[in-house]
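quick one before i forget lol
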Amino acid sequence: MKTLKLMVALTICTCFSMAVPMARKAEWKAGVAVTRITPQQSMWMAGYAARKKPSEGTTMDLFAKALALEDGHGNRAVIITTDILGFPGSVSEAIAKRLAASHGLRRDQLVFTSSHTHSGPVVRESLAWMYALDGEQAEAVRSYTGFLQDRVVEVVGQALGKMVPAVLSLGHGEASFGVNRREKTDKGYVIGVNVDGPVDHDVPVLCVASSESKMLAVLFSYACHNTTLGADNYKFHGDYAGVAQEEIEKEHPGVTALFMIGCAADTNPNPRGTEEHVRAYGKQLAGAVNAAMSGNTVPVRPPLRTRFDRVDLPFSPPPTKAELEAQLSDQDVYRQRQAKGLLGVINEKGSLPTHYPYPISVVQFGKDLTMILLAGEVLVDYDLRLKKELPPPQQVWVLGYANDVFAYIPSRRVLEEGGYEAATSMIYYGQSGPWAPEVEEILVSKVKQVVCGLRQGG
């Protein structure tokens, strides 16, 4: 820990200055806005099944932020960041419909992302079978979900109303506190520490400056679970991502820092569990962003192209009705809830779904940058593979937890290995069973199709 503190201190000290891009023609318009989304009442917190009671206050406020971008031809994209576990698809789609009506924004022009903090509030329908909500708490979740939708609609409108001529540039930093968590044991793969497992320590940073070279916003990401604080924390907190944004904005008054989480499904902070860890990792990440901002950034130029598409991801054969009825008497309360919920689906629809309509967003910035936003809790294998296999010239920025967080998205390797990310997590998400083995190839092929279509102007 002493070594970690020293690294953080050195990083912060060497990154006090911020290099603003050299004045050049403003080829973009940009607007940014912020709104507070901290719950105003005690309610259940998201992310850990081990919690047994509602929240007990707030350590750090939670925020929703919006970055609106427009090129010279009027093509727009709005990137929404939030300090929540993730947007259920029903919530993001409801917001998208409202924004289409109020601001004429198409679905492909909207991207919903989260920090995946495990110290935020439950949002309706997300991991619904994980939490033991009574009637009062269920109503609190319903009310908060409506409040969240209203705030996101408002902050997007505010960002659109603040648009000014701007220039964009891209830089990269590096953070090292994320460690692969899939540890192999005699009993199979468990959530632990695997220092030899795959990770991505890259910290991509999109700098947004006015035509007068005044920095307006920085959009950044890191592929690591926001789980520094554990299930024993009952106060709302943005975790390391919240601290990083706070540190950047404190260091650079007037700049809005926006965080999106990368493909972090099998990466945890290590070590973790204390407020000291949270502060250290947040400062380390802020230092990585500062280093990118003050280093060699490259211009990001128009045109802006956006695409929203879906691909059907198949499940393995689901359990039978008889198997689910037998599962109702399982000693595991979560398996009981899964069985009850899936039997309800069978009674209502006649059968369980054979696939999930998986959403994919792509935002392409000219010949300079392709941003790929994947739904669900995506494992780092997808990030590393897409960066390797997508052809140049654009830099590729891959993100998870976007638009719809409904399950883990394991690679074929992890499906074959088994463990929480491959199978057990589906119980808490209320899905009928593991994914089919071909899921990785279907998803990667669809992403390549969408990206190549955009690059060809399609």
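fyi The chain has one domain: 2-308+359-399.
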